[in-house]
Automatic annotation (TrEMBL):
<keyword id="KW-0808">Transferase</keyword>
<protein>
    <recommendedName>
        <fullName>Methyltransferase domain-containing protein</fullName>
    </recommendedName>
</protein>
<dbReference type="InterPro" id="IPR023149">
    <property type="entry name" value="Trans_acon_MeTrfase_C"/>
</dbReference>
<feature type="domain" description="Methyltransferase">
    <location>
        <begin position="44"/>
        <end position="130"/>
    </location>
</feature>
<dbReference type="GO" id="GO:0032259">
    <property type="term" value="P:methylation"/>
</dbReference>
<dbReference type="Pfam" id="PF13649">
    <property type="entry name" value="Methyltransf_25"/>
</dbReference>
<keyword id="KW-0489">Methyltransferase</keyword>
<dbReference type="InterPro" id="IPR041698">
    <property type="entry name" value="Methyltransf_25"/>
</dbReference>
<dbReference type="GO" id="GO:0030798">
    <property type="term" value="F:trans-aconitate 2-methyltransferase activity"/>
</dbReference>
<dbReference type="InterPro" id="IPR029063">
    <property type="entry name" value="SAM-dependent_MTases_sf"/>
</dbReference>
Amino acid sequence: MSSQMRPGSTDWSPDQYLLFRNARNRPIHDLLTFLGPGYTPTSIVDLGCGPGTSTEILASRFPTATLVGVDSSPSMLAKARTLLPNTPFAPADLRTYHPPKGTSLLFSNAVFHWLRAADRIPTITRLLRTQTPNSGGVLAFQVPANRDEPSHVAMREAAAAPGPWRAHFAALPAAQRPDLDAVESDVEFYDALKPLCSTVEVWTTVYTHVLEDHDGIVEWVKGSGLQPFLNALPEEGGVREGFLAEYRRRLEEGYGRAADGRVLLRYPRRFVVAFR
């Protein structure tokens, strides 16, 4: 289960995602920092490993642990294998994937928000149940919580605006609609996971990314939330370009410029660490 799709295809684009590699890596480091310097898992599964950047950080932080990465995207797995040729990577859909029983650390960076709301908590709790109770097993993940941010509101508004793209979006079945379901609140995650855990920690961090201009926001979300919208549109006839122009216009309305002309992208992320 990966987090970036290549336009005009059913796979994802590692290169587009990696345009903002350092900024996208910050939540990974923050999540691991919470676990503390003395935390030493013996086995790790990187759930939705993408291009392997999170797996690389895990390998560096826990060099003695058994580590495997899984993802649903062939192109992401290919990129990950290039980055870490000695680490095993395997295709998997998190809705049906069963990690090795008793895995010490189930880690996931920006993946579970891609699941529909009806699948999200059942998938997370099923994965959590593969860890032995009172064993010290940990499930640690973060998901963007930005559905109501201007960057994502503008996607939905642009899709519904008059233009040749609107018919393409309207024709999609409900299960294939490109807008993501809102992620659960702190208390919803806590209430769902606490019956299975000794301790559950939940918090939200708001990151602010300084970008050169509004085109920077477009390039950022092309590697994530905007990709399903682009994938629903034909490459020919200027439909996709028209939609992007409408989207960018709405970004200009939603984001003012700083004194130096740059644009600040506000990006909330929800963190969950569950101790089995």
